[in-house]
């Protein structure tokens, strides 16, 4: 659990946007960057610290994936109908659904402590998530607002959906937090990160937010990567892929299947939907009118290489697709000509670090 002592301090709202001739007058920060609000200048040293010391000088790696996962676990402890917690303001690692996030919580604690005079713990969790995503080619430019108050108590248990929950229960929990079924599917784009064993030598960074996840989960499962019988896991079509039961069922449920399918070959739609859903998630339980928009501090992600296009995994075909959307057929895709697994050790290392949680 993040120590409550880390919650002391928040950004001082020291600047007001000046508008002249209908344009926002921008402020030049000490590092030469310009921002719409001078208060955001204080975030650039934190950005540099996080990029250098948490994300290995700006890589799109496992720390990014886990930081993004943490933004969900932190924020979803919110309800529009009952008092379960404060939303995007803290994290409680003792709850069953939060198992496996201890490493990233511990990794972020020193940053919370170093920058507590500028950011609350809730701010830093969301800031690290947005910064991390910016390291991944193909990702959208996420928004970031600062000014979350210090948390006074942990959120209630059982507010994070689990992979063995039914679609009905997951949708109900998300609706209680203010999310539609379409927004739930959009948030699952956080899974769309190519793992290390799929990385091509010509692409030195892990590609993030390509539709491959929405394609692979729609394929018929054939085996388990290690052993079966794990709660919340179902068969996968790929040797090294752990498939969550919740992903499998959401992809095939009549309420979500068409939204799921719509992302399979539409990168721009997925980017826009993920960006909007992530902003909503990051503001759960907060008053946006009392916060400062510091989105211009978040770096702009690189675009995907021009050659990138959606395809089926190598060795598969359209016969492997389990059609679920009743309104339209799954898009016709060709198989990737490259081998799916080029490094068996990396494959099993990835299995070892995976966690069976619906928001991982």
Automatic annotation (TrEMBL):
Enzyme Commission no: 1.11.1.-
Cofactor(s) named in the record: Ca(2+)
Residues annotated to bind Ca(2+) 1: 74, 87, 89
Binding site for Ca(2+) 2: 203
One of the GO biological process terms: response to reactive oxygen species
Active-site residues annotated for this sequence: 73
Every Plant heme peroxidase family profile domain range: 68-329
Cofactor note: Binds 2 calcium ions per subunit.
Signal peptide region: 1-21
Top-level taxon of the source organism: Eukaryota
Enzyme class: oxidoreductase
Alphabetical list of Pfam families matching this protein: peroxidase, Peroxidase_ext
One Gene Ontology MF term: metal ion binding
Family: Belongs to the peroxidase family. Ligninase subfamily.
Name of the protein described by the UniProt record: Peroxidase
Native source organism of the sequence: Panaeolus cyanescens
Taxonomic lineage of the native organism: Eukaryota, Fungi, Dikarya, Basidiomycota, Agaricomycotina
């Amino acid at each position: 659990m993040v120590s409550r002592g880390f919650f002391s301090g928040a950004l001082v709202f020291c600047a007001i946007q000046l508008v002249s001739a209908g344009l926002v007058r921008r402020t030049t920060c000490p590092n030469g960057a310009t921002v719409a609000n001078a208060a955001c200048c204080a975030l650039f040293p934190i950005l540099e610290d996080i990029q250098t010391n948490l994300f290995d000088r700006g890589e799109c790696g496992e720390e990014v994936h886990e930081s993004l996962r943490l933004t969900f676990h932190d924020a979803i402890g919110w309800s529009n109908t009952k008092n379960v917690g404060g939303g995007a303001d803290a994290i409680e690692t003792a709850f069953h659904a939060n198992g496996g996030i201890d490493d990233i919580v511990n990794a972020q604690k020193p940053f919370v402590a170093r920058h507590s005079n500028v950011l609350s713990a809730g701010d830093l969790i969301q800031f690290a998530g947005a910064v991390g995503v910016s390291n991944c080619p193909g990702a959208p430019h996420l928004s970031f607002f600062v000014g979350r108050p210090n948390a006074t108590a942990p959120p209630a248990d059982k507010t994070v959906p689990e992979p063995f929950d039914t679609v009905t229960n997951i949708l109900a929990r998300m609706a209680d937090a203010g999310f539609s079924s379409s927004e739930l599917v959009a948030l699952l784009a956080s899974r769309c990160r190519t793992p290390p064993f799929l990385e091509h030598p010509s692409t030195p960074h892990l590609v993030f937010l390509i539709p491959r996840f929405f394609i692979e989960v729609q394929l018929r499962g054939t085996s388990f990567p290690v052993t079966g019988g794990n709660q919340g896991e179902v068969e996968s079509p790929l040797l090294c892929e752990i498939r969550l039961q919740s992903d499998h069922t959401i992809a095939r449920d009549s309420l979500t299947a068409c939204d799921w399918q719509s992302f399979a070959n539409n990168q721009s739609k997925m980017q826009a939907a993920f960006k909007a859903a992530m902003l909503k998630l990051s503001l759960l339980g907060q008053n946006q009118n009392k916060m400062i928009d510091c989105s211009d501090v978040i770096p702009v992600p690189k675009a995907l290489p021009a050659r990138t296009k959606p395809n089926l995994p190598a060795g598969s075909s359209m016969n492997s697709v389990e059609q679920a959307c009743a309104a339209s057929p799954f898009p016709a895709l060709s198989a990737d000509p490259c081998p799916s697994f080029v490094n068996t050790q990396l494959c099993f290392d990835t299995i070892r670090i995976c966690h069976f949680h619906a928001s991982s």
